[in-house]
Hints:
The structure holds two protein chains of two kinds.
Chain A: E1 3-8, E2 11-16, H1 23-30, E3 50-52, E4 55-57, E5 71-73, H2 86-93, H3 103-115, H4 122-129, H5 139-152
Parallel strand pairs in A: 1-5
Antiparallel strand pairs in A: 1-2, 3-4, 3-5
Chain B: H1 5-9, E1 17-19, E2 25-28, H2 38-50, E3 57-60, H3 78-105, E4 112-115, E5 118-121, E6 127-129, H4 130-134, H5 167-172, E7 187-191, E8 200-204, H6 206-214, E9 218-222, E10 225-230, H7 233-245, E11 247-250, H8 260-266, E12 269-275, E13 278-279, E14 295-305, E15 317-323, E16 326-331, H9 336-347, E17 354-358, H10 370-383, E18 389-392, H11 395-401, E19 408-417, E20 422-431, H12 445-448, E21 489-495, H13 510-528, H14 532-538, H15 543-556, E22 566-574, E23 581-590, E24 596-606, H16 613-633, E25 638-639, E26 642-643, E27 661-666, H17 682-697, E28 703-704, H18 708-717
Amino acid sequence: MPTLNLQVNGRPHRVDAESDTPLLHVLRNQIGLTGAKLGCGLEQCGACAVLVDGESRLSCVAAASDFEGKDIVTVEGLAQDGALNKVQRAFIAETAAQCGYCTPGMVIAVTGLFQRGPSPSDADVQEALAGHLCRCGSHARILAAIDRLRREG
Amino acid sequence: MAENPSLTKNPGLDSWIAITADGTVRVRMGKVDIGQKISSAVSRLAAEELDVAPARIVMIRPDTIDGPDEGMTSGSNSMEESGNAVRLASATARAALLAKAASVLRVDIDELDIDDGTITARSTNASTTYWDLQGDQPFGIPIDHAARIKPAEERTLVGKATTPLDLEDIVTGRHVFVNDMTMDGMVHARPVRPPHANARLESLDEAVLAKLADDGFTVVRDGSFLAIASADEFAVIKAARVLFNAASWTREPGLDNRDIFEQLTTNERMSMPVIDGVPVLDTPVPPPLEVPAGAKASHAARYERAYIMHGSIGPSAGLAVSRDDGLEIWTHSQGIYLLRTSLAELLELPPETLRIHHRPGSGCYGHNGADDAAVDAAFVARAMPGVPVLLKWTREDEHAWEPYSPAMVMELSGAIDADGAITAWSHESHSDTHVLRPRPGVAGLGPSRLMPARYLENPPAVIPPPPNMTHHGGIHRNLEPLYRIPEPRLVKHLVRNLPHRTSALRTLGAYANVYALESFLDELAAAAGEDAVELRLRHMDDPRARACIEAVASRIGPLDGAPDGYGRGLGFAQYKNAKAYAAVAVELTVDETDRVRLKRAVIAGDAGQIVDPNGFTAQLEGGFIQAASWTILEAVTHDPDGITSRDWESYPIIGFDNISEIETILLDQPDAPFLGAGEAVCGPTGAAIANAVARATGVRPRRLPLTPENLRAAALSA
């Protein structure tokens, strides 16, 4: 079984994984980071999103081996020294979650969005959230969290 | 107040509340969190009545070991049942602690103040604490049903907006769902389902089985039940496909592919009148409505709603381990006690040897695959004694095998006289059962409702579901109009031999009934040249209902006054004619591709006394968005070979591109009972959207979902 070197949440990890094993399974089952969720395994729902070199990417299909040499950040890696990032704080301020299954993917997508600039356009917001499904109907509150972040600049 | 079943079943204070020596209050309840944040609301009630800081309250996750048994988490009953029970339990505990303190401090109870669990005598300034008086000791007393509950003016916590307890864990990835659990030596498992519900396993390719065994996989087979397990999850996912392809299935009979609405109105059925919200057996269905003499206008219309699914974002999962002393299961089931009883009956085990823990799952909104996945996990665990088995459904399993909400046909007719009074009303609803939960009953009933059990070598007999005879039960939920209408003719048809397994989805029959009822009111108003809002108000005596309707009507503006190209619509209901009131008004357009685009929504809700305005608003908004998705987009599809809506592309749900501005108006009743908030908004949402589409396009949509195809078909037949 090939050995992979992955950089996750600022730390190097050496894992053995078959060449086709999706990144999500390596993160969850071998590195023990279960924040990114398995929702569909089809790149249709967004629950598995992680930051890859600062951009939100889906992890449920693409092989872990494609991510060697890249900087991977999962939802567990967003807080620094126990302080939540501004997107996490905005989600809490707007109660932008119910069951929470889609939330890690949403938080990652919005974090990726704001890493590109403090004032994303509505079209940028739509593009960032297009692949993300929520069934509890927290959409309006997630959009409110984004508005809050835009106001904060 | 009506009897509270949670208190009747669990009358002892110690079932609910424990004071610990280290300064916390442990609150147990039997209702489970399914994203609706019930434990957050209940923890506020406990802190309020006990006069302790909210941070001292520790909500214990429900299990079948220490109770309390509160049956099912459903029907918007949790605030009334758990909420009132914990409130009374907390008030009972407070009174007991005050009495003890009075004795210890040798003063009258009247001289005592409580501040965050510290009890101080005003006269002597001597004090004690809950933790000193009661730490780790049971109370040993029953809950006092007459315990004093704080009136509105004394409350400091209840009624104020809060942040849900689990939110920080959710946004940091620490919130552990069943799907995320892990244990030493755990294996991952996947079920391998037949191609469709009627198919059965004929044979398995022995060479493939031998190879899988060589590669370290455990294949579990019992009749047509098939599952596969091993330590590596992704390897199991791939091997499950190999195993499916190694199986030969009998595929006849296929799924009945005739028009579902035709099946609903022509199949064998049980038909019964519904009087005062309750079906009546062995009574002839009254003859069809006759248009009364002197009617100014009369109208008849038929409405249809396709099968829809719960569509949880996280597929169902269960964790089970089988040991010598029994089975231990971790599940996101809404009814762990009912699951225990039914599974124990199926496995012929004493119920107490099954220990079932509730753990968070993805939002379920009713009876989804949770119970079945727990049973799947139990079957695999029994074949692998001592090994913890985490079994997950795939996305395809969830879409194809969850119990759907049944398709419905609603036939309405009515008449209105020259004074604008509705003088005749008929509403017949045709559907399959809305409640097929694994509820124990006659022998075999509970087990037969555990889907995986149906595929065993010796399956329990499937018993046709009896009609739900409760007040505003399943098909007839909100069949009865709240409006003042003389002798409405209401008929429930429980239709047999339909193609899909169905069970409870948020609101049961109420969503489709309210969509139809409130659409028909608009149609009748138009036929008589009446204003749709005025017609509603003229027939509504309940001031709380009127307040909701008036609130949204005034905020959305005149229903016929939308800007060019837009349409406005309104819908209203009191859930079950007994729970929360909700009115919804929307403004929308139908674009050049015939897609419904929401522009603006106004929701007014009255759920009685509000514990947490933030939580109530979230339930209203979330219910609106979910019901908008059902209304605009959703239909389960199938052909003779099986379900064809097997992923999010073939079963689309609403996304961020169709989320409107939403304004919510909360009508608080600080001294009124809790009414339960989780479902009220869904029916009015469907009606408001349909009514707005009718105004925007001039074509009345009578088949859900309001997809371009269905809207074009409606335009062609108009």
